[in-house]
Amino acid sequence: MSGKLKYASMLYCCVQYAQAAHMLAHCEGLLGPDVAHYCGCVGRQYVHQSDRYLEKSHNILVADLLKTSSTFCVRFSRHELPAI
User: Fold this and answer.
1) SS3 assignment, position 60
2) pTM for this one?
3) What DSSP character marks residue 50?
4) Less packed terminus of the chain by CB within 10 Å, N or C?
5) CA angle, corner 71, sides to 47 and 68, nearest 5?
């Protein structure tokens, strides 16, 4: 999800608004009650996970859970920032 959101940001910065909107709509469609949101940023409140996510976490491998049902905050590295 993080990579898709970074891609949408790049599309927006390149004035490709329709494609950026399409990518954001796609990302929004991937979210749901069985997807957990994690953010390690200082000052952010912990979000309790839904019962559907917790039930799913007992039935699949951790690696698969992280790939398919977990999202993390988007952080840009200094190499991903636009040159001024």
Assistant:
1) coil
2) 0.71
3) P
4) C
5) 125
Query: How far is residue 65's CA from residue 76's CA, in Å, rounded to a whole number?
Result: 24
Largest CA distance in the chain: 48
Q: Are 75 and 1 in contact (CB under 8 A)?
A: no
Query: What is the b/e burial string over 22-51, where b = at least 16 CB atoms within 10 angstroms of the residue's CB?
Result: ebbeebeeeeeebbbeeeeeeeeeeeebee
**Residue 70 CB burial class (10 angstroms; 0-12, 13-18, ≥19):** middle
Contact between residue 35 and residue 2 where contact means Cβ atoms under 8 Å apart: no
| Per-residue pLDDT in tens (0 to 9) along the chain, 84 residues | 888 999 999 899 899 999 999 999 999 988 888 888 878 777 777 777 888 888 888 888 888 888 888 888 888 888 887 665
Sequence-separated (6 or more) residues with CB below 8 Å from residue 52? 33, 34
